[in-house]
Design goal:
Elements: H1 8-26, H2 35-55, H3 62-90, H4 99-107, H5 117-136, H6 140-162, H7 165-169, H8 172-193, H9 196-215, H10 221-233, H11 235-244, H12 250-257, H13 259-280, H14 287-317
Helix pairs in contact: 1-2, 1-12, 1-13, 1-14, 2-8, 2-10, 3-5, 3-13, 5-6, 6-8, 9-10, 9-11, 13-14
């Protein structure tokens, strides 16, 4: 093990890589699109780990809990307002501009903020964690049992009601992240003594991608199973990355600072670009790469003022000095 793989700087810069991966995935309509859920899987893993890291054996104050939710919900609704303005001009998704459409979007993890399904699921997972934390009363085993039980109920809700495929097959990484906190030392000792794990971390993504490639053109259950396998095994490469590479890059640090905003707003810009290119008859070479670069630049420019406004709101609420 070459680096402290779960230290703050390492995981923060990994979040930047994940953010870039999501933007690139959404810039594609090919198999590369599948890399988006892979990145979100690792987002869930890091979220679970960092949450228990900051809360375990500590008294949870109402201010802390409220701040955790507002850090997600305020950006979410700020960006939703922008999306509603966008849809007002393009007038293509009228059902989202009704109360019924909005509520159904939230309940089915298909909100006006298309990329916001991740935040909606994460908010639910926070609720499950805080309930499990209260039940556990300082016992790690009780925490994991309570969280697992609550999560099974959440998964059944997804299967029978929301039918959101990604919300069914990847949020368990959050639970794995929570569990990782308690077994981190054992995992590291096992890894140091068994170098063959490196080969597993590299082979799993390759094999799962080949499976997905083989079934990607098909429809139905076979494609969904292949996708679920890829979403769950491909993150192994990103784990291998942070185990072996010290992430210390100024560009990644910059992206990490605005990663939540970039994640939320980039789909809107891609929507605009696709409409403009279609209406104006523009022909673009390397369209996926062009979409990725253009979307990233536009998202960064919008993310900076949004982050500034968000900080002002947090200051008014007393969450930031």
């Amino acid at each position: 093990m070459n680096v402290d793989w779960l230290e703050k700087e390492q995981t923060v810069q990994l979040r930047a890589i994940l953010c870039l991966l999501v933007v690139f995935a959404h810039s594609n309509n090919s198999i590369a699109y599948a890399f988006g859920p892979v990145a979100v899987s690792v987002f869930f893993l890091l979220s679970g780990y960092s949450l228990v890291f900051t809360t375990w054996n500590k008294k949870l104050t109402a201010k802390y809990v409220v701040r955790k939710f507002t850090n997600l919900l305020i950006p979410y609704f700020m960006v939703e307002i922008l999306y509603r303005i966008l849809y007002y001009f393009y007038d293509t998704v009228k059902h989202y501009n009704t109360w019924e459409g909005t509520i159904n979007g939230y309940l089915h993890f298909s909100p006006p903020v298309f990329a916001g399904w991740y935040l909606e699921v994460l908010v639910v997972l926070l609720v499950l964690y805080f309930v499990a934390y209260k039940i556990a009363k300082g016992n790690s085993r009780n925490l994991m049992l309570a969280l697992a039980g609550l999560y099974i109920g959440f998964t059944l809700y997804n299967i029978f009601y929301t039918k959101c495929f990604e919300a069914i097959v990847i949020p368990h990484f959050f639970v794995l992240g929570v569990g990782l906190y308690f077994v981190k030392d054992k995992v590291e000792k096992f890894y140091v003594k068994n170098h063959w794990v490196n080969y597993v971390l590299l082979l799993c993504p390759i094999i799962s991608f080949l499976i997905l490639y083989f079934f990607y053109s098909s429809e139905g259950t076979s494609k969904q199973i292949a996708s679920a396998v890829f979403f769950n095994l491909a993150p192994a490469f990103l784990i291998y990355l942070i185990l072996h590479v010290k992430l210390n890059n100024k560009f990644l640090a910059f992206i990490a600072k605005y990663s939540l905003w970039i994640y939320l707003v980039h789909v809107g810009f891609q929507y605009i670009l696709m409409n403009v290119i279609g209406m104006w008859g523009i022909k673009v070479r390397w369209i996926s790469v062009t979409f990725f670069i253009a979307t990233l630049i536009l998202s960064i420019f919008l993310s900076i003022p949004l982050e500034f406004i968000f900080r002002k709101i947090n200051k008014l609420l007393g969450f930031q000095k």
